[in-house]
Design a protein that fits this description.
This protein has about 210 residues and is α+β, with helices and mostly antiparallel strands. The protein is built from 6 helices and 9 strands; from the N terminus they run ααααααβββββββββ. Strands 3-4-9-5-6-7-8 form a 7-stranded antiparallel β-sheet, with no helix packed on it. The protein has a two-stranded antiparallel sheet with strand order 1-2. A hairpin with a 5-residue loop joins strand 5 and strand 6. Helix 2 crosses helix 3.
Length: about 210
């Protein structure tokens, strides 16, 4: 049975900035063995699959099978890439760490720069509805530490929560502006340690909640 193992291992390895030799050292095999996995010529025994799953923080089922989205994209001949899906909570220094990763999810690669880094979060609430962002939509952000005035981005606030808002700056005052008149803007003190720009919005994948 054909699996996604080699493709997924390669994506996870590259995301960590490792070469094949370094990954091989983690599980006690040669770089040639890792290369053989990644071109889907061979697969390791389950003991090594478990080691890899533990190292990358994913399930063995995910390493072997991927998920249904892969099948959908491939059967439709749609190019895609995998990006980390993060939970809403940032770590203490205002950023994300690997422990925050919920999953590595496939998203359409059209419009994404192959040399840039991206991450995903699900939209929560209706504060950005006038920008076409609704509760449950999947938001794809390009990693960056700053955005221009008027750009929608992902920011870590003083409560260590990642939030999607429009960035506004006037006379040294930063505001994170909702796109819904029912919500108040968030006034930011840029000197607070926990405020950080995490990325700029690049793609919104709509959540269609069909009702019978």
């Amino acid at each position: 049975m054909k699996t996604q193992f080699g493709t997924i291992v390669k994506q996870l390895r590259e995301r960590k900035g490792m070469d094949q030799k370094e990954l091989g050292e983690v599980v006690g095999v040669s770089d040639k063995t890792v290369s053989s996995w990644e071109i889907n010529r061979t697969e390791p025994k389950m003991g090594i699959v478990q080691q890899l799953a533990d190292y990358f923080g994913v399930s063995t089922d995910y390493l072997i099978k991927g998920n249904q989205d892969d099948v959908i994209y491939e059967s439709s001949n749609i190019g895609y890439t995998r990006v980390p899906l993060y939970e809403a909570i940032c770590c203490g220094n205002g950023g994300f760490v690997d422990e925050n990763i919920i999953d590595m999810i496939p998203v359409p690669s059209k419009g994404l720069n192959p040399r840039a880094e991206y991450f995903a979060q699900y939209a929560k609430g209706e504060s950005m509805k006038d920008a076409g962002i609704n509760d449950g939509d999947l938001l794809i952000f390009e990693r960056t530490s700053q955005v221009d005035d008027g750009v929608i981005g992902c920011f870590c606030d003083e409560d260590n929560v990642a939030t999607c808002k429009k960035y506004k700056e006037l006379n040294g005052i930063i505001m994170l502006q909702p796109m819904n008149s029912e919500f108040e803007p968030i006034v930011v003190d840029p000197l607070k340690d926990n405020f950080m720009c995490l990325g700029k919005l690049k793609k919104v994948i709509k959540d269609f909640d069909w009702e019978d």
